Prior knowledge:
By secondary structure, the protein is α/β, with parallel strands linked by helices. It has 5 helices and 5 strands. About 10% of the residues have low confidence.
Amino acid sequence: MSRQIASLERAARTPLLERRHDGVRLTAAGYIVLRRAAAALDQIDATARELAGLPAEAGTVRLGWYPSAGALLVPRAIAILRRTHPAITVTSREGSTPALVRALRAGSLDLAVVASAPPFRPPDAESPHLELETLAERSLYLAVPAIHPFAGADSVDVTDLRGQRWIASPSTREQERLGSGPGWTNDPTSHTPPATGWPSCISSPPGVG
């Protein structure tokens, strides 16, 4: 064993163990080598199982997602996971981004697909920070009647939307209504139509949504 340690230290060009009168302990470099070696052994083990045709380790992943992610993003991801890791079971739940973040903090979810909008602040102020990875970015679309001044425009600056009459979902305790926030003076008579009533509500009387 001592020869193997000496060989590793020569390769690393730094001591990996601190020799003490009461034994030995890892140096900072030793901890790095240990962590990397453990990861390498895991990869070797996974490669051996795959080559042997053994199924991947079974397990359950608890996934949360905000409503519109359930249309395409989440189903596609789950379909790919079923092909590549068939032994893994996915349980899912839908919720607002704030509710999903709280579930992550509480430990009732393993990961979540959440939404964010400019100015892209952290999802909460808790510590340690949640690990975030951008999966997709998309543009927001504005619906206006044909007679509206914005009709035919290639793009609209967000500052031009202030003061507009909004047809939007109402604010809740967790999420503000689209178009609401500091500095906005949108028409307070904006209301929420049924899903099938958006076109008529936007066109009469004119509004944006």
